[in-house]
Amino acid sequence: MTIFSRRAAGLAALFILAAGLASCGDSEADQRKAFITFLQARIIDKAGVHVPSLTDDEKSSLGSYYDHYLVVGDFNREMNKVLTGPYKIAQNRAPQSIQEMMERRADVKAMTESNVEGRDRCAQIAG
Predict the structure, then answer these.
(1) Within a domain: residue 33?
(2) Each residue of 34-91: pLDDT tens digit?
(3) Total tally of structural domains belonging to the chain
(4) Cα separation of 54 and 63, whole Å?
(5) Terminus of the chain with fewer CB atoms < 10 Å: N or C?
(6) What domain range includes position 45?
């Protein structure tokens, strides 16, 4: 075999291998598009703050972007844990007057302690 035919055969094999690898799996552009579509349809277009769970189809279509979404989900879960205390107490109607604060002294103390714990947890998460 001549040098020219060896190089041609090597280049042809390399080209076939590259074309085969390029056609395997989802491309990064398709995964990025699926992630953007998911964010727009399931998070941005909905009112309020929420981080929905992914279906198996969504997990597979997001590819490596699924790992990025897990970071968002973990952060949201931790923030929900931090904020459950103060908001739960506030939902039970916070005191509106000094007299009511004195009557509900235990609730005010619990709300204060919960706010301090929440602040400390937020600092821990952020740090």
Answers:
(1) yes
(2) 888 888 888 888 777 778 888 898 888 888 889 988 998 888 888 777 777 666 666 6
(3) 1
(4) 12
(5) C
(6) 26-126
